[in-house]
Amino acid sequence: MSKKILLISASPRKGGNSDLLCDEFMRGAAEAGHQAEKIRLSEQQINYCTGCCACISNQGSCVQQDDMNDIFKKILAADVLVLATPVYFHAMNAQMKTFIDRTCPIYSMIRDKEVYYIVAAAGGQMPVDRAVKSLQVYTNCLAGTQEKGVISVTGIWDPGLVKGTPAIDQAYTMGKNA
Fold first, then answer.
1. Could you tell me which of 109, 178, 97 has the C-alpha nearest to residue 138?
2. Which of 77, 94, 139, 172 has minimal CB crowding within 10 Å?
3. Which pLDDT score, from 0 to 100, does residue 125 have?
4. What is the pLDDT of residue 164?
5. What are the C-alpha distances in Å from 16 to residues 45, 91, 104, 120, 134?
6. How many domains does the chain contain in total?
7. Which ranges of the chain have pLDDT less than 50?
8. 92 and 123 in contact (C-beta within 8 Å)?
9. Which domain holds residue 65?
C-alpha cells in the first residue's frame, strides 16, 4: 500500500548531512512506490509562536499568515512523518523547535502517524540521544504515533561526510521499508 510520507528537514544547509539522509530516505520510499515530499524549513517563511493562544479556541488555525498554514494540511494528510535535524548543543536546532512549536494549532489533530527521526551530529552519541529524546517528547504528545526508526550519525561536521557512513544506507533502507 502506497503511503504519503512527509519529511521535515531542519538543516539550514542544503546538502547538509541530515538533509542528505532525508534524500536517501525519499529515494528508498519512491522506489517502494510511496509518495514522499521533503520540506526544507530554511526555505519556508515560518514565524515563531507568539503564545497568543488563539488556536486553543479555534483549533486548526493560526492567526499568523505564513507557510505553516500550508504545512499544516500536509502534516494532517501524511501517513508518515520524518523529523530530521542537525544536533546543536545536545538538542534539535532552532528551525525544528520553531516548527514543532508552530504545530500547536493542529497537534491534537495529528493522529496515527508512523514517525522516523533523522539526527546528525559532530559530537558523540550522548548529544544524539538527547536530541532524539526531545523529538520523542514532542511525538508522544500526538495521538497514536508509532516510532518506526531512528537514523543517526555522529562525528561528522562538514556537509556531505555522511555519504561515507552506514547511516546513508540505513536511510535508504528505512525509506524503502516505510
1. 97
2. 77
3. 86
4. 87
5. 20, 17, 28, 9, 21
6. 1
7. none
8. no
9. 4-176
Q: Identify the residue whose cell numbers are 527521526.
A: 117
Cα→Cα distances 175→30, 73, 100, Å: 8, 22, 22
The reported pTM is 0.96
* Type of residue at 63: V
Residue with the three cell numbers 495529528: 110
* Residue in the block written with cell 519529511: 7
The amino acid at residue 78 is: A
**CATH number of the domain bearing residue 66:** 3.40.50.360
Contact between 60 and 95 (Cβ < 8 Å): no
DSSP state of 95: H
CA 50 to chain CA centroid, Å, is 22
